[in-house]
Specification:
alpha+beta, 5-stranded mixed sheet, 3-stranded antiparallel sheet, monooxygenase, metal-binding, Cyt_P450_sf, heme binding
């Protein structure tokens, strides 16, 4: 990163930066505003981030922090209205060079991906893969999603604890990713592993920087072979790889640019669905009256799915870079400044969502949540994610009286991906109410 101070993480790849001030133990309401560093995974892991966001929405909704040596100075937008304005203004706020506050997702060489591009390149590359998740394709996928959901749920143990994340969320997500990429089904777990390699500091996975680069090298080699094979065959299938390989706008992708686009699709397909699928079980356990609502009226399931996504917000933020000097709420943002649009905060903005910290499945305006973004960069797989979650809850209600969470969830230490690593659950089948 240009002009960034050297850090411990630069000197020793086995370490990464943790804020000395913004910690789970600190009082979010007493910490000096200038010491608040929202890009701190520990506060998300400890579920303390919402209090920081609430304070900033009230006291300093356009917040500047310049003490994080790993990512450099950055602005934080915490109110729904401001996030919406920036997210839909690609003329003044660029997605290049990165969607995250840290500049590099794939190692030393920056990996171009269409979500981190501006028009017209963005439109060309995004348009190439849209058919894979478009309305026609989704109609075809619906039956397959249900078949796989039935298979996975019917294999679950009852009356004994199991990890819902491993047995359901990851399994269903990887099966869908394998379909969307037409990836070898028996190797599907590689897709979620590569997704974690991209978004997780190596030390948190028990890996070195060299390990990470080796895994990414394997990923690139695998996808390059599939890309060339489908290009040679002139494959007209509607999977992501075939669409990229045979569209004039993307047929010449290679190296890190190919990898960047494919990893974007993997991360997008993995994190939103997987973490919402896990979080929904937790939220329904914590809010039995809301669970009763969908038991009594299954037409509320689509609304419940949207509320799960709002309440969890699987990707906490997206970054933009100012293309010119601009003023927001009296704050002077300079050309080139990093801006974090905190979807996790916008989705809890009380001025837009009344009782925003409550889980309410029939919330009237829930479909206006920010978790999928807005404008030209709105998540293109949102309908597939919603379909997967809807079908999971439809099939849960056919089989189980309730899903009991029996231990505190294990969460990831990350400010970008708001995820759950493990969720111990006991499934109580219908007819066996304790």
């Amino acid at each position: 990163m240009e002009n960034a101070p050297e850090t411990n993480a630069d000197q020793n790849p086995e370490e990464f930066y943790r804020s000395p001030t913004t910690t789970p133990e600190a009082d979010p309401w007493a910490l000096p505003l200038e010491d608040i560093d929202l890009a701190t995974g520990a506060i998300f892991q400890a579920q303390k981030h919402h209090e920081y966001f609430k304070r900033l929405r009230q006291e300093n909704p356009v917040h500047y922090h310049d003490k994080n040596p790993e990512i450099g100075p950055y602005w934080s937008l915490t109110r729904y209205e401001d996030i919406m304005a920036v997210d839909t203004d690609f003329e003044r706020f660029s997605s290049e060079p990165s969607i995250a506050l840290f500049d590099e997702l794939l190692g030393e060489e920056r990996a171009p991906m269409f979500i981190a591009m501006d028009p017209p390149r963005h439109d060309e590359q995004r348009g190439a893969v849209l058919p894979a998740v478009g309305p026609v394709r989704l109609k075809d996928l619906d039956q397959l999603i249900r078949k796989r959901t039935v298979e996975v749920l019917d294999e679950l143990p009852t009356g004994t604890p199991f990890n819902w994340v491993e047995k359901v969320s990851i399994e269903l997500t990887t099966r869908m990713l394998a379909t969307l990429f037409d990836f070898p089904f028996e190797e599907r777990r590689k897709l979620t592993f590569w997704s974690e390699i991209i978004t997780t500091p190596p030390i948190l996975m028990g890996l070195t920087i060299e390990d990470r680069l080796n895994h990414l090298g394997e990923c690139l080699q695998t996808f390059t072979a599939l890309f060339k094979e489908r290009q040679f065959e002139g494959n007209e299938s509607q999977d992501f790889i075939s669409l990229l390989a045979n569209n004039p706008a993307t047929a010449d992708l290679e190296g890190v640019e190919l990898l960047g686009n494919l990893m974007l699709l993997i991360v997008g397909g993995n994190d939103t669905t997987r973490n919402s699928m896990s979080a929904g079980v937790l939220f329904m356990h914590e809010n039995p009256a809301e669970f009763q609502k969908i038991k009594d009226d299954q037409s509320l399931i689509p609304s419940a799915v949207a509320e799960i996504i709002r309440y969890q917000t699987p990707l906490s933020y997206m970054r933009r870079t100012a293309k010119e000097d601009v003023e927001i709420r009296g704050k002077q943002i300079k050309k080139g400044d990093k801006i974090a649009m905190w979807y996790a905060s916008g989705n809890r903005d009380e001025s837009f969502f009344p009782d925003a910290d409550k889980f309410i499945i029939d919330r009237p305006n829930v479909r206006r949540h920010m978790a999928f973004g807005f404008g030209i960069h709105r998540c293109m797989g949102n309908r597939v994610a919603e379909a997967q979650l809807r079908i999971v809850w439809e099939e849960i209600l056919k089989r189980f009286e309730r899903l009991e969470v029996v231990a505190e969830p294990e969460r990831v230490e990350h400010s970008f991906v708001h995820g759950i690593k493990a969720l111990q659950v006991i499934a109580h089948p219908k007819g066996n109410k304790p």
